[in-house]
Amino acid sequence: MNEISCCTVSCDKPLDQDYWDAQYKANTTGWDLGLVSPPIKAYIDTLKDKDIAILIPGCGNTYEAAYLLEQGFTNITVIDIAPTLVKIIEEKFITNTRIQVLLGDFFNHKGEYDLIIEQTFFCALPPTMRQKYVWKMHELLAKDGILAGLLFNRKFEVSPPFGGSQEEYDLLFKNAFDFIKLEKSDNSIAPRSNSELYFEFKKNGAVKVNLYEFEGITCSGCMNTVTEKFAAVKDVLNVSMNGNFTEVLIVSTIEIPLEELQKIVSYDDHYKIKKITQ
Ligand SMILES: C[S@@+](CC[C@H](N)C(=O)[O-])C[C@H]1O[C@@H](n2cnc3c(N)ncnc32)[C@H](O)[C@@H]1O
Fold first, then answer.
1. Domains, the chain, ordered by start
2. Measured in angstroms, how far is the CA atom of residue 93 from the centroid of ligand 1?
3. By the 8 A CB rule, do 239 and 252 touch?
4. What digits encode the pLDDT tens for the residues 208-225?
5. Ligand 1 centroid from CA 27, angstroms
6. Which residues contact residue 216 at a Cβ distance below 8 angstroms, ignoring those fewer than 6 apart?
7. Which of 121, 196, 278 should be mutated for ligand 1, with most atoms under 8 A from CB?
8. Residue from 81, 90, 119, 125 to probe ligand 1 pocket by mutation (most atoms less than 8 Å from CB)
């Protein structure tokens, strides 16, 4: 299950705005493909409606957005936390009214999108933020909205990027999204061949997806107990706790009252649960 996973960078310094901006300033942007990722290009080529609202979070140099513009899409938003990068792409797209370039933290962003494109943003986040990522993506998508893109299907010795596996993504996204595709990508660029999964997930609008702060757990055994207790609640479909036991994602068919969740963990005085609303 979820052990606390550490990495060179995230334990030494936070992966915050300063960290990412420094990478752009120093030009240490090894993730930058210099072109639209082929599996994403192939997916874009299948889209008929050019007026759908599209978001690209952690957009970087956003060759995906450039390709969308070339193809005539009219409603594109890109967001990145690194000011140095955002200044460059603002200038690049300055005369184009079909794209909005935002400087900011994706997790504070508000909006409603038909499609969100994932391209090396998920893997740039500390793994402890993965539950928050699922919750935020679900919130930002319109009814029947699609989250599509690429996820790594491998581990890395030095991170970021942070790797993962199909099994992990299955457990993380299930019930919040309907899986249209989650499969080995057969058209990744050569350096990433056999190491990416291509996915298309449709928002499950019939469920409640809530994220809670959790306090008091200190070991994975206790986490498993708490997770199992929440999962046993009638109407709960999926429970996933992050690797440092501070956030829990609960997918359910109806809203579960906070008091009920707190009562379930009241056997330990240290356990406190609080709903995250922003
Ligand atoms: C690995 S890079 C990928 C960039 C781009 N998607 C690409 O493939 O070239 C991750 C990007 O996410 C941005 N980022 C990291 N955390 C962010 C956050 N919380 N909100 C918005 N952008 C963020 C970084 O500034 C960086 O540009």
1. 8-203 (3.40.50.150), 208-275 (3.30.70.100)
2. 18
3. no
4. 999 999 999 999 999 999
5. 14
6. 265, 268, 270, 271, 272
7. 121
8. 81
Report pLDDT for 86: 98
Atom 11 of ligand 1, residue of closest alpha carbon: 58
Tell me the per-residue pLDDT of 178-192, one tens digit each, with 9 for 90 and over.
999 999 999 999 999
What does the pLDDT look like over 139-154, one tens digit per residue? 999 999 999 999 999 9
- Cα-based torsion angle of the residue sequence 89, 95, 99, 104 in order, rounded to the nearest 10 degrees: 40
The predicted model scores a pTM of 0.95
Chain mean pLDDT for the chain: 95
3-class DSSP state of 51 = coil
Give the residue ranges of the chain where pLDDT is below 70. 1-13
58 CB within 6 A, ligand 1? yes
**What tens digit of pLDDT does each residue of 192-212 get?**
999 999 999 999 999 999 999
Cα–Cα distance between 207 and 7 in angstroms, integer? 34
Rounded Cα distance between 43 and 206, Å, is 26
Ligand 1 near 80 CB (within 6 A): yes
Q: Which helix (H) or strand (E) holds 231?
A: helix 220-231
Q: Decide: 156 in ligand 1 pocket, CB within 6 A.
A: no
The vertex-130 CA angle with 190 and 20, nearest 5°, equals: 65
User: What is the C-alpha to C-alpha distance for residues 254 and 234, in angstroms, rounded to an integer?
Assistant: 10
